[in-house]
Amino acid sequence: MSDKTHQSVSSLKGVGGETEKSLNDMGIVTLQDLVMTFPYRHEDFRLKNIAETPHNERITVEGRVESEPSVLFLGKNKSRLQIRLLVGPHLIKVVFFNQAYLKNKITSGQIITVTGKWDRGRQAISVSNYSPGPKTDNVDFEPMYSLKGTLQQKKFRKFMHQALEEVGNDLEECLPSNLREAYKLLPVQEALEGIHFPKSAEHVKQARRRFVYEELLLFQLKMQAIKKARKEQNKGLSIAYDVQKLKDLISALPYELTNAQKRVVNEICKDLKEPHRMNRLLQGDVGSGKTVVAALALYAVITAGYQGAMMAPTEILAEQHAASLHDWLSPLGIRMALLTGSTKTKARRILLEQLQNGEIDLLIGTHALIQPDVEFKKLGLVITDEQHRFGVEQRRVLRDKGMSPDVLFMTATPIPRTLAITAFGEMDVSIIDEMPAGRKEIETHWVKKELFDQIIKRMVIELQAGRQAYVICPLIEESDKLDVQNAVEVYEQLSSIFHQKYKVGLMHGRLHSTEKDEVMRAFSEGEVQVLVSTTVVEVGVNVPNATFMVIYDAERFGLAQLHQLRGRVGRGSEQSYCILLADPKSEEGKERMTSMTETNDGFKLAEKDLELRGAGDFFGRKQSGMPEFKMADLVHDYRALETARQDAEKFISSDEFWTSEETKYLRTYLEQSGAMDGDRID
């Protein structure tokens, strides 16, 4: 790379102190920084046929002025100037807002070129760009940049032109020639010209293709290098579990594992045998059978003489896991214990002694597991359920309690493949994408609010049959800002409807955790028949007798959250129902309701949610760990992401990558990024 690329932007003609500061504020310090600053879109100035242009689309036309301009003044500094323009055989209206001065510049019979929004019904264009005379320049596409300070598009393009002329030929090509040839990707200089000053729509498309792939490849190389470094650094335990004992437990289960469960168990067991630490994410939709997979993994570790630990985000969830694991593992002589914040001092002291002495094989609990005085004798596997609910530091503390134990994270939140590859790129990902046989699909109906009485009648049928119901509301108390049902009001309404016949419970985020647990326990044990709740009920709780759910103002929830909520019912053998009470105003809201009624597949819904909301909103931008890409879009560029991941895996595992001159740039990039040390740098 020549020194020119590192020259300051102040070396460009016209860049003074104030302009340099604005450029620096945009992260542009050198000429290379400038040419690698991409436009967020291109304005299309190609002449278009009026007859073929859809309503509300942007259009550029040239034509002859057929009337003198007429101006209407609309108040202080506001005006509307209108002319008639003959474009081919079409006589259309052309409207200029707040440009009254053009009255003296546009004359009847003159040829002009205008760009603006096309109103097909009124046969009119609202002008955003105007130039006298026919379209003479060759600029069909004009780049638009996100600028700061006093910078203007025209000036910025001028600087970009200068910078490209100065350093375009000196930029180092980062993609090896065999990849560029295989994927027919433009060389870097041609791609930069195509992004900043394209000759055609195809030129923009090919330039974008090149930079999307480059960006995703660099990111995936980093992820794969981190994964490799961590495996080499984290010399974990090679756990020689008893294969026959594990097979016997699988045979003794009251049902056969699905093919997806078998595949995932094999992936985990392979990791246990390896001499490096397992770092795996297990994804499975609500009810797909993750807990039994966790039980098998923990049992495998225990047969090799190690201890296991499982951490859940709430006490009630920890208790439910303990009950399930007890049913499967206690008959095999596995010694288990439950540790939560509610464990009494004396019982806790005895439990900790037994744990340290190796008298406990499996410890299940909440974040109480990560207290400093909790010490294991020989910890082999740590499983964290609903891993996104724990902070990175909390997960690390538990992981560090053993001599490099294997780590398995579980989540019931279906994450689209593109996001899993990106957000958890340094992890191995296992997916249970199949539901156990015999499980009935939850019937989901989208109902308008005026049919509330019929919904209550339908709920009563379920209650009379001895079943239970959830009613979910978005807010706790009344709000002037949002006209949405709130939990307190609904609780009072249902309590008066059911009188003493059915008991109604209320749960929301402002209750203390012990109060929440108490309400949930009363519902789990059937003391409460109808539970009115905010979304705090979203994760984990298993009440097989609950068969009916109503979600108020369902349009206020994202698809992923609606699906998680729906998963609280349908956990027993009886048919279950989910009613979406919603009057969505937006097209997106209607689309979400329709999607929910069409499928119970969480992964399909997650993909749809990603499509509707975008990657940043899917996790919540701040806590997501999602990288900000300049050019790539995870929704539309998923094929390129998959290809880049496969290529990065091949590179990192091949000897040639680490020695070839062709891949020198990529190696340097990895060294400078810190990925070679196993550091996660987003």
Automatic annotation (TrEMBL):
Span of domain Helicase C-terminal: 455-616
SUPFAM superfamilies in UniProt: Nucleic acid-binding proteins (SSF50249), P-loop containing nucleoside triphosphate hydrolases (SSF52540)
Pfam families found in the cross-reference section: DEAD (PF00270), Helicase_C (PF00271), RecG_dom3_C (PF19833), RecG_wedge (PF17191)
Catalytic activity, EC: 5.6.2.4
Keyword DNA repair (UniProt): yes
Domain called Helicase ATP-binding: residue spans: 271-432
One MF term in the entry's GO annotations: ATP binding
One annotated GO biological process: DNA repair
Keyword line: ATP-binding, DNA damage, DNA recombination, DNA repair, DNA-binding, Helicase, Hydrolase, Isomerase, Nucleotide-binding
Coiled coil: none
Catalytic activity reported: ATP + H2O = ADP + phosphate + H(+); Couples ATP hydrolysis with the unwinding of duplex DNA by translocating in the 3'-5' direction
Purpose of the protein: Plays a critical role in recombination and DNA repair. Helps process Holliday junction intermediates to mature products by catalyzing branch migration. Has replication fork regression activity, unwinds stalled or blocked replication forks to make a HJ that can be resolved. Has a DNA unwinding activity characteristic of a DNA helicase with 3'-5' polarity.
Protein family (similarity comment): Belongs to the helicase family. RecG subfamily.
PANTHER family xrefs: ATP-DEPENDENT DNA HELICASE HOMOLOG RECG, CHLOROPLASTIC
Protein name in UniProt: ATP-dependent DNA helicase RecG
Organism of this sequence: Paenisporosarcina quisquiliarum
The gene coding this protein: recG
